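Q: Start with the shorter request: fold the first protein.
A: Done. Sequence, then structure:
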Amino acid sequence: MIELINVTKTYANGVDVLLNVNLHIGKEEFIFIVGPSGAGKTSLMKLLYREERPTVGQVIVDRVNVVELNADQIPYLRRNIGVVFQDYKLLPKRTVFENVAFALRVTGAPRSTIRRKAMQSLELVGMLRRANAFPEQLSGGEKQRACIARAIVNNPPILLADEPTGNLDPTTSWDIIQLLDKINRRHTTVLVATHNKNIVDDMKRRVVALESGRVVRDQQLGGYNV
């Protein structure tokens, strides 16, 4: 499903954020990417949806080397990858429904399809009753649920969540992780970059640990620390 082969990412200032990373992620896996700030977690995520390109190496997503995609092909890649952000990135002047529907509208989907799929997505994440609310009217947990609804409305086979609980209290954080687990059980490959030790330890999923841009541990049924 996803493979990074000898991937190094060096920024223009000479800083290496990823160093010779080799990683294979199978279909329908649930994986935590852990490590201290600056370890390379976000950079790794950005490579997968071609927000950035590696300096060296190959990034394979569903048998496609995304490094070789031209600008016109990138939007089609991103239709198959949902992304959840720590800071939500919701459109402030659009309702929850409109935020979710927007992800379908840009693909040219018919209006009837947009409404049906958006409502289904909101129902799945428990936000149907808040469909007409604006982002400023939502709690942090509700904003994240709306962000997840937007990310999965196209039913992508891959969902990336970059610090999805970073701004949330412990109870809400657990609710969000349980929602991501539910989505994973619907046959979606899920990658979660996180600092949340308690959640990683409790979930007992595959853990890939980064340190200074290198993979230092890849453990099934792992915890946050060795």
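Q: Next, the second protein, separately.
A: Sequence, then structure:
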Amino acid sequence: MARVMGVAKVEALFRRSAGLDLDDKNKVAFCLDVVESKLHDLLLAGEEVALYNGREVLVMWDLPLTRGLRQTMKEFEALQEEVPVEDVMRFVASLPPLRVAYDPELEQELPKVAGGLMVALAKMTRLFSADRLPSWEDLERAKRALDLTL
């Protein structure tokens, strides 16, 4: 299955953005599932906006990027971590197709969106974790918080 980023990248983002260590590959997979689900949600919401506006192409500004998510995208960029656009687009290609095409500029920005989502999840997990090794409960709480806000 295509993933938006690799295990080492997830671990690095959690460590560098929130001071957390993921001590279990299943926790990494859980985090990837959360981020990929949220990315899909953003694309579906963007599709609705594009179609409502009579366009058949999804552009970056169609995505409902909150101010907080835009901030974590900037934090992701500041960390100078790279997520290959090819990895993200392979994941996107594995999703049910949208009724709109992806603008090439949007495709280039999707790694930042995915990175920003991972940083947001890490920071939310940090809010719930008193330890540098988050528990499954901490990760579940962070997922629920992300679900409520995005």
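Q: Describe the second briefly.
A: The first helix runs from residue 7 to 18. The first strand starts at residue 57 and ends at 58.
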